[in-house]
Amino acid sequence: CVLCGRTDDCPEKYGEKRTYVEYNLTVHYYCLLMSSGIWQRGEEDEGVYGFLIRDIRKEVNRAAKLKCNICKKKGASIGCVAPKCKRSYHFPCGIQKECIFQFMEDFRSYCWEHKPVQKFSVKESRESSQCTICLDLVEQLPLYSVLKSPCCKNAWFHRECLQYQALSAGVFFFRCTVCNNKDKFQKEMLRMGIHIPEKDASWELEENAYQDLLQCYQHCDIRRCLCKKGRDYNEPDSKWEIKRCQCCGSRGTHLACSSMKSWEQNWECMECRSIFAKSGNYSKQQKRSLATSEKTDVTTCLLEEPSPKCPRQSSGSQHSFLLQSPKIMCQNNLTPCSRLELPASNRMTMSLSPLMSNRNWSLRKKHLRQQRREVSSILKELQLQVNTKTTRLNINTENIWNSALKGFRQRNFSPTNTIEIKFTSCKNRLKMDTSHGSKHRFFQLLMLHLQNSSLFEGSSAKNLSLDSQALKENLYFEAGKMIAVSLVHGGPSLGFFSKTLFNCLVYGPENVKPALEDVADVGVAQTIKMIKYANSLASLQSTVHDCYEFLAAAECLRPVTALCDKNVLVNDILIHHVIKRIISPLESFRQGLKTLGVLEKMQMHPDAFSSILCHKPERLSAETLCDLFTIHCSSDIKKAEGADFWMGYLQDVESGESVVTLEDILLFGTGSFSIPPVGFDPEPTVKFLHRRYPVGNRLLNCLELPITKTYEQFKNKMEFTIRNTLRVERE
After folding, report:
1. Helix 522-532 to helix 565-574 angle, to the nearest 10 degrees?
2. SS3 of 463, please?
3. Which of 28, 52, 237, 581 is placed for a possible disulfide with 14 were both Cys, Cβ 3.0 to 4.6 Å?
4. Per-residue buried b or exposed e for 695-710, using 16+ beta carbons within 10 Å of the residue's own CB
5. Neighbours of 529 (CB within 10 A)
6. Using CA atoms, how far apart are residues 521 and 21, in angstroms rounded to an integer?
7. Beta strands 25-28; 463-464: pairing state
8. What is the DSSP letter of 307?
9. Around 162, how many Cα atoms within 13 Å sit in the side-chain half-sphere?
10. Dihedrals φ, ψ of 699, to 5°?
11. What whole-number distance in Å separates Cα of residue 416 and Cα of residue 197?
């Protein structure tokens, strides 16, 4: 190894040893990570694990001048980070001398004198217990070789056992062996020098490790099997495909034998249904809801094995709200049969006067502005988590989604790092600018793609859709994460969430009642309308009979004995289609929105976040831009000289007397098409200077405007510069 000078090949102690013949270079991974004078400046596939070859050479030259305080040989590339400590050493020497190396954040190293230690009580120090990994005795002494669990009082480990366990389990499965705590346990072990690799567990990577578990039940148990080729015949992607019970998996049916049109639909065997019926807690109507409540969750289990990164929601947490579907609709002291829904044409409506309507709209706009000011301060508070460490994302303008997904999934990506965007184009491999405005443009394009992607459905107000492939690839989680990162890092308002989706995220799906407007599927919406607007019991029963297959698939079949039954039936269908069907995507999406604490703030301030997630931002006005840009003048220039021309020009642009728009002016000055919810940093300013043409300094969000003798000169220069600058950028 060029850094430690040893030939040992021990991945558990020193990390993987790699030799690069073309560079005449051999290096241990841990020696490279812990060296004090080198940083990972390349991409993952560049150099050695992202460390550039020239940087490694420089580090070797630097270390050649330093003597190891342990073996007294040259080449000590690692230094203690304690203030005023000048000790240097090789990585293997540090291990031998019981130094601590922290494999996190800045990869700090501590010498044997300044290393962190765990606190032991006097009583604990006298006892001995069993290592919960190797089951051998471990002395409860403040030794380097002994570690104590931070979350369990009587959990002790050998350091060597813990390190082997961490290397095998990886970051997703490494946790306390006693209580299964993950976050607190990993944080303490990283502090004490345990390396937890960012990889999947070794048993997950073993080929065909779970082959025995892939034996599926393939038999039709329906009393009258319709398949002429027998009960064991199974033809995928046809009506003779066998579907297993969503609850026990040990009974099956051909799709055709149970009148199912798609494998996506769920089915329960008679044994499981009888168990639910005999439980004593649910009525027959509630039993149907219970079957439906488990539907989507179990469908997901059949489609894929959930990733450990996205924990599975417990089934018990769903029962409590999904059993509420057959609510008794006796409100305002009316019986269920006394409240009949009539078509819109049969209902008498009252319209507000234009004066009242305008006043209400004005008040609503004022309320939305107040909420957006509130959400801006909340996002600025979350933005304090972002540090100065930079993560660069290479974004292909022709494939914004895949390149963004690759960037967000790369190992060195962290939501708390400052994001830098570099645009590229596949056609000419042209590297575009990495200016301040490129980040705004990236988030604008990414959010626009998400809005129109298959993850959402609906026209303007969108709900989550059910895309089994996206669910399998964990794309709902990534979408939530991208939205959270965009909001905190200065991305645009979304404005396309439906109220139902927003309420599901904030209050939980168990507390949300969907409406007909939430149904994007035209066929399903038409079916619901036919039931909802049935004006007699006979027509209702006829409609239910015509929709029998659909209702059976949705498990919303119920006896219809009175016209008022249609209200409960419509409610059941809406809850199934809008909420139960997408429970798994919703939970995954929520997990993603937890990034940087965004979901928690949404739940604390729902009205404020609703203004940017459910409402489109209002069009820019001259007044808005005038308030946004603060006017600064040098000492030799009077503020009034340019301010009058500036405000007059904004009014001309707003009234359409200009070839540019207010959005063009904002883009010219800040690089952003709209005002982001978090606001601009730094605050936008206008400066009036003695110069020929205006300049948009996007790094400082500053418009540097010329001082002219007449307004016509000012307007002509503004329009010429802004129009041509943006035209060149677009080209």
Report:
1. 160
2. strand
3. 28
4. bbebebbbbbbbbbee
5. 15
6. 60
7. unpaired
8. P
9. 26
10. -65, -35
11. 20
Residue 233 identity: Y
Indicate whether 390 pLDDT > 70.
yes
Query: Is the predicted pLDDT of residue 698 greater than 90, yes or no?
Result: no
Nearest Cα to Cα of residue 598 among 484, 482, 478: 484
Residue 164 or 288, more confident: 164
Lowest mean pLDDT among 104-118, 248-262, 389-403, 473-487: 248-262
Using alpha carbons, list the distances in angstroms from residue 554 to 12, 277, 296: 53, 19, 11
Contact between residue 152 and residue 168 where contact means Cβ atoms under 8 Å apart: no
Section 602-627 average pLDDT: 88
Domains of the chain listed by start with CATH number: 17-110 (3.30.40.10), 122-204 (no CATH), 366-514+583-614 (3.90.1750.10), 622-730 (3.30.2410.10)
Kindly report, residue by residue over 5-63, the tens digit of the pLDDT. Answer: 998 888 888 988 988 888 889 999 999 999 999 988 888 778 888 889 999 999 999 99
Q: What is the DSSP string of 675-691?
A: --TT--SSPPEEEEES-
* CA–CA distance, 561 with 536 (Å, rounded to integer): 11
β-pair type (456-457, 463-464): antiparallel
Nearest to 570 by CA among 617, 623, 622, 534: 534
Paired with 146 in beta bridges are: 158
Q: What is the DSSP string of 330-383?
A: --TT--GGG-----GGGS---PPPHHHHHHHHHHHHHHHHHHHHHHHHHHHHHH
Evaluate whether 33 touches 5 at the Cβ level (below 8 Å).
no
- Between CA 44 and CA 54, with CA 48 as vertex, the angle to 5 degrees is 110
Q: Which two tokens stand for residue 334?
A: 């009316």
Plot region of 113 (φ>0 → left; ψ -120 to 50 → alpha; else → beta): alpha
Conformational region of residue 50, where left means phi above 0, alpha means psi within -120 to 50, and beta covers everything else: left
